[in-house]
Design goal:
Distance between the termini: 36 Å
Number of helices: 3
Number of strands: 0
Structural class: mainly alpha
Shape: globular
Oligomer: single chain
Length: 67
Amino acid sequence: MVNYEIKPTFDNLKNSILQDMVGRNEAIAKFIEFLDATNQNTAIALDDTWGNGKTFFVKQTQLVIQS
């Protein structure tokens, strides 16, 4: 099996957002809207199988928020 893992480096995160490589920009925007609408402490679970990009998604979101 070929591994197509993209490491969550700053450049990879930035380029993935600028180019919307995997079509997640809309999901990132909606997730940020959800976070902004939350008025209290909230636990959030991202549920998916191993290797489907949960950490990368969170790091992309973090980069957008911090920009």
